[in-house]
Please model this.
Amino acid sequence: MIYLRHRLHAAGIEGIRAIGVMPTLPRPAQVELCAELGAAFPRASLCVIESPARRTATAAAVPAIDVLVVPFTRHLHRRFVREKTPLISRALRSRVPVLLFYDVAHRRTDIVRRGAVPGWYARRLLETLLIAVGRRTRWARS
Amino acid sequence: MGAIVIVAHLAPGTSDAPLLLARAFERLGWPAAVFPMDEDLPTAERVLEPIGLPHDHRLWIRLFNRRLRRYLATTRPAALLLFGSNWKVLPATLQMARRVGTATALWECNHRLDAWFQRQALGEYDCYFDLDSHFLHVARELGARRVEHLPGCADPEEHHPAPVSPADDARYGADVSFVGSPYPERVPFFESLAGYRLRLWGIGWDALDSRRLATVAAAVAREPVYGLKKTVIYRASAINVNIQGARMVNGENFRLFEIAACEAFCLTTPKPDLARWFRPGYDLETFATGEELRAQVDRFLGDPNGRHQRARAARRIVLESHTYDHRAAQVLDALGLRPTAVTREPRTVGRFGTSRAAGRCDEI
Model:
């Protein structure tokens, strides 16, 4: 419980009244995350946006939430990335910050904000390149 | 930022202890911030892990210390507390912190002294705290100035008697549970529990060679555990087992206090420090061998009242003397940063008496 509060507090996200959460499937780690959110923010309302609703996810509903939580499993599945991306973009356009779990079971997270999106993408791209070069270099050494 | 900076890992394996400690400091009137070693890293550090560089690689240590020094120079906190172990902080960084007026301390839980900087840094702390009383004289002999015993603890808000729904019971319920890492010394105990509804939670269990471990292999839940889930697992299990890792000589870990705070029943291997904090036989029960473990499991599966009675007594002890507020108050006091009204030192119970303060090294 403390972790989620800490993560949002450290990102300057305060006074949370409504949380949007987009689970991939009702898998244990995702169900547990929803329970954890409910326990960490007992006064906030939790809006679970399930798969069928995503394509038609209400443009009106997104600005009403204070933070959008997007849990991915460790191996990002293309289908889910494709499905979730429009709503993430919509949230960011509405200035709603996104708490992105890129490995929900192991609790690896990023906070993404509207203004930071180009930098965030650029950084991820740079990191991917560096990792690829670094791995290749290590292989060459070994 | 914070008046107290806690350098720590934030991966789920840490029980969120640094965050709970930070919250306790804040409750005592000291703003606190966690400086994570594994989260929100700059790109240069973030790529090192997937590349496969070991965490104690020189490059990693150099980059981390540069970032920490910049942070300390900008924020000039009142105190810098390393939690868990000194995984990466160089003596030069601690010296720099002290030059700008920041008190330095280490709360050692993993007893890492194998790297040169870990040994040299011992002389740079204003106060050295250790979970395990055995290492207090070791630290003093290696040059630590002020040494205090600081045992594990729990947070009543995080670790509490959470209700267990039928769905929770179906998913987490068990005769015997364990949440933690698969240290080699733990595995034989669990192998001896064939025939019981056993669940083993945590990271790394599936890496064991399952061909020779029939009981363990069948009991492993291949998933990390943290937060509310851990509290519910403790509550949904009839018996929670605590087996100390080999790095503990006299001390007890956080698990013991967390289970107690959840008002759950615990069977633990006995270490000398156990009797300082709990009364074995009244608040929890112990075992030393696989046979004893089986006998205790048989006994307490048939005695739910005995389990509940002990669990209630253990929770009472934790709330009285072993919360993060108590530990934060002791740290503040040792560093000369006055806390408010919480009892300074962990009160002891059991065979060492009830009034003796066990926090100081010289009293042990």
About this structure: The first strand of chain B starts at residue 4 and ends at 8. Chain B has a mean pLDDT of 88. Residues 4-153+323-363 of chain B form a domain with the Rossmann fold fold (CATH 3.40.50.2000).
